[in-house]
Structure formats: structure tokens, C-alpha cells
User: Fold these one by one.
Assistant:
Number 1:
Amino acid sequence: MDNFTFYSPTQFVFGKGTENESGAYVKKFGGSKVLIHYGSGSVVRSGLLDRVKKSLEAEGIAYVELGGVQPNPRDTLIYKGIELCRKENVDFILAVGGGSVIDSAKGIAVGVDYEGDFWDFYEKKLGVTKALPIGTVLTIAAAGSEGSGASVVTKEDGMLKRDVGSDLLRPKFSILNPELTFTLPAYQTACGATDIMAHVFERYFTNTEEVECTDRLCEALLLTMVKETPRVIENPENYGARANIMWAGTVAHNDIVGVGRSQDWNSHNIEHELSGLYDCAHGAGLAVIMPAWMEFVYKHDVNRFVQMATRVFGCELDEANPENTAKAGIKAFRQFLHDIGMPINFAELGAKEEDIPLLVEKHGVGDGLTWGFVRLSAKDIAEIYRIAAKATL
Ligand code: NZQ
Ligand code: ZN
């Protein structure tokens, strides 16, 4: 195991009715004028937004609102949010929604006190040194942004999807009420489940040795998702299963299962070009890319793939030919994704094989190599897109 420091300062407030404590938590963390940020309307329709406002009013906290965050959140709304916060002297941002809303809130948070263009942080021109505090009321278990220091935003001009990371972007508090996820359509639930599993796999596939503790934690999360996802698709109001998925989603990405080990993130970066170009759901893009990436890299460490196959997907170990077991594990993962309603190839996702050169160019690896479990060249990335394009069960 490698040396590490781990910092996860977010206060998680979990359970039924906890959104009614939003106001008290904003107060606790020093907010006096709040920007309530939300998406395209699900929180209005469900009545959640009204409950959150009431909770702020009960604590005497003033607020302004900015809705309209799209999935794959855009820079254009973030500029509006920054202006609004400056004009209204906002000192706390409350994101009510999913990963897109939270990431948009983080974009506003880094931009308010920065004189230049907030996009500079996403282009890695400089690191984050200051950000407005944010809190979240989560409505979908997926991105893990409620516990992470990351934000992923799409620049409308050119549809470039880029990320920024800093501990300063970790929310002060996150309210996690599994009941708020009952209204999710099955497709969004499955996209979220896929993203959660991908967050674990990006950490699971490591070159670091002697990481049994985090391996086992990763496997616990994966097994939870394999068990609980079909249960919530069958019955969207299964509180117990929703609760397990919600906590798994947070733990999968606040990095507690990734510490002390090298990580990958190639599937995420390869996927981001798909959701950037086609505006598809991030989880759906991952369902197409991640098994293809696995097929491309498994020979790098067959034993690790055998471990996944046997411990997570219950495959029989073929002692004479462990490669068969590794391949069976990848096949089982793709089958699982198909069974929960995810696309498994370009046609099902709505992506086009002829766009592969463009996708590779947008990825931006150039003549170099990526970092990760297996370092990839532009040619490798093109091959992964090709495997993904043609995948079958
Ligand atoms: O906008 P509304 O009307 O709220 O509808 C949303 C949206 O259409 C809907 N939804 C959310 N909660 C709902 C609901 N519908 C009914 N009932 C509810 N309770 O679901 C749709 C998707 O929402 P979105 O926020 O886009 O989903 P998700 O949480 O999957 O976020 C995806 C974004 O997060 C980024 C992705 O790239 C993508 O842009 N990621 C962020 C990460 C991070 N910050 O750490 C890491 C991830 O790897 C990921 O890249
Ligand atoms: Zn993700």
C-alpha cells in the first residue's frame, strides 16, 4: 500500500425527512445569503424545492434561486450563477439535485471570487485556492459529487467536457434522503448504478500491491450494486435498496476505497468525450466504454481480472486457463449492464463509429500517453472506441 492522506470533511446527513434540516445545516456552516441551484424541474415537481425553501425560511436565511442546470452541466449557466452571486452577495451555495447540479454549483463556487474566467480552473491553468462553501441535497445516487472534490463541466462552445479537483470543493454538508430517489426513471437509476460501479473499478484496477483492505471494500460496494440495482428497478420505492445504493454511491467516490493505491480513470476520460459530443448520460457512456476498456487491458494483470470475476461476479476459476475466467468476468459485467437496461455498444448509445477520430482528437492525448493501470496512446484509445462500437453480449 502507498502512503496517503485522506480528507473527507463533508458532514453527511442520511435518512428520511433530512431535507427539512437544510436550513439548520446552512446556518451551522455560516451561510446567511444562499443561492439555491437546481436542474430542469424534477425538484419543483416533487415538492422538494418548496421543502428546502421552507427550511431556510425557518432559520431566517435569505436566498435567491437559479434553476435550469442541464445534465452534463454547461459553462453558460455557471457564468450567470457567478454574476448572480456577486450581485446578491451570496455567501453559500445549496445544490438541490444530482451530480450535474452539484458540479455546476462547484463551478460557480470557484468563479465568484476569481477575477478571470472560471474555465481557467477546468483548463488546469491554475489550482483552486478559494471557493464559496457549498451544501447539497442529493436526488440521484450516481456521480458521488456530494462527497467528492471534483466538478465536471461542459464548455458549450465546442462541447468540451473538462474537470477540476480540489479539497476546497468538497461540500460542507450533504443531505442524503433515499426517498428523494424514488421518482427516478429506471434508465436514470441504471445510469447512476453504472457510474457508481465505474468509480469503484477505476480504483480497483491498480498496479499497487498489498491492498487487500481497499480491494475488499471495493468488492463490497460492487456486490451491493449487483444485488440492489435490479431490486430498485423492479420496485423504485424499495427504501432499503435505495438506501444501500445511495450510501454506496457516496463511498464509491469520496475516495475512501481508493486511498493508498494507484488508480486508473481512463474509462472516465474516454467516456467524457462521448457525453461531451453526444450529450448522452455519463453512466450510459460508461456502460459502453468500461467493458471495452477491460477487454483491451485485461492481459496486463490477468489475476486482478480473475479476482473480479470470481469475487464479484461469481465466475468459476478455470485453473488451467485463468484468462478464460478473466474474460468471463468482463462478459458477466456487460451482461449485467444490459440486464439493467444500459446500452452496450455505439448503436445502442446513439454514437457513430465514424466519429472515432474526432473523439480521439477531443480526448487530447496527442503523441503522449495517459496515466493509469495501463498507459494508453491515441491508437489504443481509438481501439477501445472500436471495441465499444461493435460490442455484443
Ligand atoms: O434536471 P432535473 O429535472 O432535476 O432531472 C435530472 C436529470 O435529467 C434527473 N433527476 C435527478 N434526480 C431526479 C431526477 N429525476 C427524477 N427524480 C429525481 N429524484 O436525472 C437526470 C440526470 O441528472 P444528473 O445530475 O445529470 O445525473 P448524475 O448525478 O448522474 O450527474 C451526471 C454528471 O456528473 C458528472 C458527469 O460527467 C455528468 O456531467 N460526474 C461528476 C463527478 C464528480 N463531480 O465527482 C464524477 C463523475 O464521474 C461524473 O463524471
Ligand atoms: Zn463517473
Note: Residues 212-234 form the longest helix (23 residues).
Number 2:
Amino acid sequence: MRAAHRILRDVFGFDAFRPGQEEIVEAVAAGENVLAIMPTGGGKSLCYQLPALMRDGLTVVISPLIALMRDQVAAMRAAGVSAGALTSANTEDETAAVHDALADGRLSLLYMAPERLASGAVPAMLRRAGVGLIAVDEAHCVSQWGHDFRPDYLRIGQLRRHLGVPLAAFTATADAETRAEIVEKLFDGAAPRQFLRGFDRPNIHLAFRPKDGPRRQILDFAAARKGQPGIVYCGTRAKTETLAQALREAGHNACAYHGGMEAGDRRDVEARFNAEDGLVVVATVAFGMGVDKPDIRWVAHADLPKSIEAYYQEIGRAGRDGAPAETLTLFGPDDIRLRRTQIDEGLAPPERRSADHARLNALLGLAEALTCRRATLLEYFGEAAEPCGNCDLCAAPPEAFDATQAVRKALSAMLRTGESFGAGHLIDILTGKATEKVRARGHDDLPTFGVGGELDRAGWQGVFRQMMGRDLARPDPDRRGALRMTEAARPILRGEAGITLRRDTLAPAPRRPAARQLVSEEDAPLLSALKAKRRALAEAAGVPAYIVFNDRTLIEMAERRPDSLDALAGISGVGQKKLEQYGAAFLEVINGAQEAVHPARRRLAGRAAGTLYDQLLAAQADLARGSDGTEKPLSCSASQLARVAATRPADAEALARLLGEKRAERFGPAFLDVLRTAD
Ligand code: ADP
Ligand code: ZN
């Protein structure tokens, strides 16, 4: 077996590389200069951690966030790798221990904040320590035009020249300008080997909904995912507070996070989010780069993000471990107005502003898309894709209609009123509603008055929202959001182009079935037992739960139920060190679960009645508190269920003889259904 594969299996516990990882690992291990662009969750860290173990000497990792470095060091140590960090958050003892290890040549990985490079002594110290490779995480921080710019990143190029060692840079930001800047600043313009790995994150479910009682929409979405860690992004600080409060009242473990909070409070939230299992953080975009938690199961946007890039980055925080994750983005005309105004009133030069409008347009196009969201998103990033089967539009294609006439009427209403009014007033005109404002301005005499009978108010709202989304109409910031026609709309007005829109996206959403479960119903109890064990071990060790094992690993354990240490070693994410440290504890949980199967059920194993028993058990669980969930808990004994499964009573009376009146009344109809469909 090749060295890289062996380390991958023994140290990291993974059977296979993720797409793109292997080539990068090979190149970095061979000492090439590398720039790798991989999506969040693609597994960038491994691309320098693994080569660090293959190469002689120390690998120094420059990373912008202290919390993130500490977690990575903890994760590396848990895997048995000697790693340390030099950051301002270190205690004196920690720093001394790192220096000792450096002096003895015992460290494989040294994490360091870029600010450290400002100290003149550091390059010489690194040289003495025998650095053989520099890895730069979040390399886009070197870009002066990006929002994550960190001036000290500009010192990295100098360090590379000073040490004369190869450099590997990693980022998830891929636009050509940023890439060029990275090459110039980190590699002195000498092109490194570049790897560009696709943007798809197939495990993330994508969904958008027009706002329709947004608070309720967010609460419903969160309720279906209760107990799972998630992020709700909001447009304003005030909203993070009120929504967090509402979530707490609904029984969630939730807290707010925004840039106006004290630094210490912000760090507390970050630390809690990392360490706890089911915290919901309601945040502005300030909650971002430092979030490295791999098992975030959902991300909701209570307000529309500012661009398609921002959207991709924010939803991308979910499901880095590769297990299923879900997202929901809400949007409405107010969002569009707000985002346009922010761009127009911003300080950016005009060409930048029009680029920002284009990025917003791309996001709105995604929000109003008629076919697969993922394909639409990937197309924006220049990738071709088939319909994905894991988005709301693949699940339920929207009804489209030829909206050419409707849009022309709307444009005409806008133009005839001097482009001075918002959608509400224009809809009054189109639907022939003679409000005071309409009459006062004589708009009931316009030829467009009352010509829009083909759609109701909600229908017209959908049309206007989509017109704004397609950038056919823009709110004018100088005129309090009055809608102006854009050049893009002219061909439609002139009858030279047609347009198709989605119909009634404002109709009440079908009540979304409960969140998809991570494992089958049968494996769910074992998964929660494994999670409880993980929590206990993590708390005892003072590390976040995922440092012990991530969700993906626990899911595989619950499904495959390894019954020996050997079998456990075959689970993805279980390396040698973790096998030694935790293997026995988790095996005990798995074996315990095996035994928890009732003897009455075990006797039916491998027979049709066994399956029937399980179906009866599931039907019973649904009715444990009655069909409306409010009655006294009630259940049948295992031997009663086994008898029903084995004898298959044909009617209610026969069933009542086995179960008694009370139980037959609650469960009878459902059980008979199970028995009938089993025939
Ligand atoms: P990125 O920095 O690219 O966002 P990370 O390096 O944090 O991603 O990796 C995300 C998650 O994927 C981590 O939990 C990591 O353990 C896991 N991972 C990385 N490589 C593999 C692999 N080859 N097989 C399985 N899981 C992996
Ligand atoms: Zn799709």
C-alpha cells in the first residue's frame, strides 16, 4: 500500500480520499508549490496534514483564526499526531511546551496566527526548528480587495523566501481576481501547481421560499430539526435577538450572535456552539469564518443573503462531515429593496457597484429558478450539472406560466405613473382597487386601471417580486423604493421578447414533512446512544464532541454495527489512536443495543413475523400518545406484540382478545392496517 493511503487509514481512519484530495496530497508531499481551491467541507486540512506526516521536518500552518487552530490541534492530537499552536490565546505553559517540543524536533505540525510573523524573531526561530513546508489556510485573506483581508498575510511571501521551502495555499474562494492575487503575493508571481475542485456539495439539501409569515416559517423549519445544531442567518442585529428569544420560547437551545456583542460574549457563543450538541445560533454574517464545526445539520436564512457567493459560503457551513444537511432561504420584495439600496448607497466605485448588482441578480435568479437549484447554482460557478434530486425544485417542480402579458401590464402601470410608486400601489391600479391614494392621483382613470383581473393580489405580488428578481424593475433608493423599469425589460415591453414566471409561489407551503432522519428508524435509538457516549467522552476530555468522532462516523457505526475492534477499525473516521482510546467504549454501546432487543422479538428473528413485529412496534410508537398526541402514554408488552405478529388476528374482536379493550381501541385500526398490508 502507498504511504499516503496507509497514513490516511491508520492515522485519520479514512478508507478513501475525497475527490481531489489525493492529487493535492501527492503534489504537496513531493514538495511542489501548490494552490488548491476546494469547497468548504471538501477536506482541505487533510491535504497539508497528511503530507506533513510524509515529509521530513516541521510543517508550519498559517491560519487566521485562533479557535480554529485550537480545534485542529486537538483533532490532530486525538489522532496521535504531535501538533502545537502559537497563538495569543496560549497560556505561558502551553507556549513553553510548544517551544520545548520545537527544540527537541518532536513536532510535526505547528499552527500559527499570521500576526506572529510581525515579530522579527519568528522567521529565525522557524528556520532553527527545521521547517520543511509552509501551509496557508484561508489563503484568500491575502487579497486586499476581499472582505477577509489580513494585512499580516502579506508577510507570508517573505517568510517563504527566507526559509526557502515549498508552500501550499488553500482556499474556498475561487474567483479569478483573488486567485491571481494569491499567486502574486504568496508565490511572487511564479505560478504554483493549481488544483480547482468542483463546487458541488451534494449532501446539502437546497430550498428557497418566498416570505410568508417568515418568523413562523423559521420556527417550523427549526422545530422539525429540534436538537440538531443549526445556524439562522438574519439581516439585522436586532432580529438575531428577537428570533433567538422566539426559538428559546419554542423550547430550543438557542442564542444570538452579532458584531455588536462584546468580544468575550462572541467567543462564548462560538465555544458553546462547537462543544454542545444541539445549539442553534441566530446570527448576522459576523458569525462566519471561525465556524469550523463539521456537524452543523442545518442552515436557515431568515433574510436573503447579499450575493450568490455569500449564499454559497453561508449554506456551505452545513454538513462538512458529508452527512445529510438541510438549508432554507427566505426572500421577499423587502429583501431585494434592502440589498439594492445597500449596494447603491455603499461607497464602492461605480463598476464595483454594478458587479455587486450582478451578484445579487444571480442569487435572485437562483431564488426564482424554475429548474434544479443545484444545477442553477453550479452553472453560475461554471460547472455543468444534471438535476440533483436533492433540492426543493427537483422534489416539486414549480408550475410555470407565460407571464409576458402580465409583465407588460405591470411595466405599463409603472411607466404611466411616472415610475414613482412601489408594488403595492401598482397592484391596486392593476386589480382595479380604487383606494384613496389611487383616486387622489387620478390613477383610476388610467387605461391600465383594472386590466389585471387574471391574477389576484398574491399573484401580482409574485409577479412584481420576480420582476425585481429578474432585474426588470429596480427600487429607486432616491425615491423611497419606487420601482423603475430597467433596460432589460424593454424588449418585453416592446413585445420583442416573452417571459415565463413561476405561478403562485406565495401559496401556503405544503407542511413540510419532518426533517429527513439521518438513519433509519431501526438504527435511530442506537445512534442516540452513540451520541450520548460521545458527549460523555468529549466532556470528560474537554473537547468538542466531533473531535471524538464526527456524525458521519457514528451514523456508519449505527448502520453497520461492528461487533469487534477489527470491524470497528473498518468504519470511516476510526484511526488507530482513536480505536485504542475509544473503541471499547463504543463497542460496548453497540453490543448493548444488540442485547436490548427483547427476547420475544429475538425469537422471531429471520421470520416474516419478525418484520411484522417491527412494523407493529413502529405503528405503536406513532400512537403512543393517541392519534392527536395528547392522550396518556400507552403501549403493548413485547409478548403481546409478538403474539399479534405470530397469530395475525383478522378483526377488531380477535385483536381485543389478545390486547384487552383499552389497547385494542388505541392501536386496533393501525395494527389491522399493518396486518392487511403484510398479506
Ligand atoms: P474544509 O477545511 O475543506 O472545509 P475540513 O478539512 O475541515 O474541510 O474537512 C471537513 C470534514 O471532512 C472533517 O470532519 C474531516 O474529518 C472530513 N474528511 C476530510 N477528508 C476526509 C476523507 N478522505 N474521508 C472522510 N472524511 C474526510
Ligand atoms: Zn435539484
Note: Residues 204-395 form a domain with the Rossmann fold fold (CATH 3.40.50.300).
